Amino acid sequence: MKINKTIIQDNMMQLMQRIGQNRYLQAIMRGMMMVLPATIMSSFATLLKVFPVPAYQEFIAEHNLAQFFDIPINFTNNFLAVIVAFSVAYTFAKSFNVDGFTAGLISMISFFILTPYNLGEMGPLGQAIDIPNQWLGSMGLFTGIMVAFVSSRIFVAITLKGLIIKMPDSVPEFISKSFSSLVPGIIILSGFTVLSAAITIGGLGSIHDIIYSIIQAPLTSLGAGIGSVILVSIFAQLLWFFGLHGHAITLGIVAPIWFAMDAAQLAAFSAGNPTPNITGFAFFMTYTAGDLFPLAFMLAFMAKSERFKTLGRISVVPAVFTIGEPMAYGVPLVMNFALAIPYILLNAVILGGAYYLTVIDILPAVAGVAAPAGMPIILSGFMQGSWKIAAFQVLSFVVRFAGWYFFFKIADKIAVNEELAELKQQEERAQAAASLKEVEAKS
């Protein structure tokens, strides 16, 4: 039986597009991107706190300054689950054109309702509430995401069905929104209060204990392996090869796992404790950064094809800042079988090598720092806490260069032949046009 490859390819692309456009995955990715300023702030505070210069560390210790670097860390990285409970609910509700701020606020309050706390002694300003920070950071991240989806989904359903208090158009918008959120807010917060009470009365600890032990810990164990990282890398590049945004699709699936790992990694690094993970989002981004820069360099300075030379000069500067779209769609790398092998497999090779060197203690584990988008290699390596990581990024450039070279020469030769064929066709058309003019002139 003959298999229609075009139909299979079209169906696969449609499936991947549907996955990439899934509201829940998009809400996770956009929600995570919303908290990026907070995670970057935490990363810089951590780097300033542990900057490995003896004289600097002596100054920090002498003036007891570490406690002040801990302030932004505690309310960003160590508060990540709370922030994500708001941001994911916000982006999810906005995708339905519903009030995202109110949805996020209700989600965040719901998260606190489910979080265990202790009541302190009554003081002049009231009774103190002690909330252990165990569940406010990386360990509570999955709970934050699940609370965000449940609360915002209920909020969206109630709002879209019109089961809200509607005020006249003459009422100011901020007052109207306050009243419209009353019904869904009361329903959602009451529901989470009942859930929290039921879990406590049943002696099950808290929802955090349940979700962490049943969902987050097993998924983290599964996603932390280098096999999972390599699989994500290959699959992402394969999707790019077919013209889809591979990272938007694949990283949306693993983002909760890897972000939680990074948060735990950064917290341990900041506290001076042994880091618990090797892989994670920071590991993936640090060692795949600059993946197309060697190809851009070859295009700009080694290509014989005029089209490749021009494209390389345009692409080389963006490639320094880890932007590869000009080459993906300009070379193109999409559906280009001459360059498919290095495009799909080289990142996996580098990630595997980095993992092995980390396991045998030649490379330190990445610190889990959230580097700003477009951070060039070497700088992003230093940001992860060691010059050795930056040095490996330089070595990776050499490995990638060698991996691309053979296939680049093939693609360049094909491009040159196409240009020569096009030039020959232009000459033939010009000669035909000239001959036609001569015939017309004689007649």
UniProtKB/TrEMBL annotation:
Q: Which residues form a coiled coil?
A: 413-440
InterPro entries xrefs: PTS_EIIC, PTS_EIIC_3, PTS_IIC_cello, PTS_Sugar-EIIC/EIIB
Q: Where are the transmembrane segments?
A: 76-93, 100-119, 139-160, 181-204, 210-232, 239-261, 281-302, 314-331, 337-357, 362-383, 389-408
Q: Flavoprotein among the record's keywords?
A: no
Q: Where in the cell is it found?
A: Cell membrane
Annotated keywords: Cell membrane, Coiled coil, Membrane, Sugar transport, Transmembrane, Transmembrane helix, Transport
Give the source's domain of life in one word: Bacteria
Q: Which residues form the PTS EIIC type-3 domain?
A: 8-407
**Recorded topology in the membrane:** Multi-pass membrane protein
What exactly does this protein do? The phosphoenolpyruvate-dependent sugar phosphotransferase system (PTS), a major carbohydrate active -transport system, catalyzes the phosphorylation of incoming sugar substrates concomitant with their translocation across the cell membrane.
Output this protein's name.
Permease IIC component
Give the species: Vibrio olivae
